[in-house]
Specification:
- The protein is an alpha+beta fold and about 160 residues long.
- It is built from 3 helices and 6 strands, in the order H-H-H-E-E-E-E-E-E.
- The strands form 2 sheets. Strands 1-2-5-6 form a 4-stranded mixed sheet, with helices on one face. It has a two-stranded antiparallel ribbon with strand order 3-4.
Length: about 160
């Protein structure tokens, strides 16, 4: 009978968690959630940039096809190239903002994406090549009459692809 009293006394003192254990578990769970919420926007941004790069690459391919079909000529400056034909089926970037293709003979300042954009400008620069991620019309760098560069913004910087 003395043993029965000891067991019941012992079991009553071992029930439940201490406040320190509960706080420690909540702190660890909070850190895990914090890491997920910090990483999630970066992951989404990278996915959108990957889609943009695919769209820009498709544009470069379409411009190459255009030059092939037009005896090596590039589109005229300020030509109206429909984004839904040259970039993707809906003509929009991954955020739903319309693309605008701008054909130019000179290199613009670095394009950027901001939250209030009503369009995303994608440049096709005639007689240009990419040099270190930015377009140049320098003949010393390899720019020719038939070369072009696609220069466009991403959320993490810019994209440049030339046909040479």
């Amino acid at each position: 009978m003395a043993q029965a009293k000891m067991l019941s006394k012992k079991s009553s003192t071992l029930q439940g968690f201490t406040i320190i254990e509960v706080v420690l578990v909540l702190a660890i769970a909070g850190l895990i959630f914090l890491m997920v919420f910090i990483a999630l926007p970066a992951l989404q941004r990278n996915q959108r940039d990957t889609q943009r790069r695919q769209d820009y690459s498709a544009l470069a391919s379409q411009i190459t096809t255009y030059t092939t079909n037009n005896n090596g000529s590039l589109p005229a400056d300020n030509a109206n190239l429909p984004a839904d034909k040259y970039l993707n089926a809906n003509g929009e970037d991954p955020r739903g903002v319309p693309y605008k293709i701008v054909v130019a003979s000179s290199v613009p300042s670095a394009p950027a994406i901001t939250d209030g954009d009503t369009e995303v400008k994608v440049y096709v620069i005639k007689q240009a090549v990419c040099d270190g991620g930015t377009p140049t019309t320098s003949k010393e760098k390899g720019a020719t009459k038939r070369s072009f560069a696609v220069y466009a913004p991403t959320e993490t910087g810019t994209y440049c692809q030339s046909n040479t």
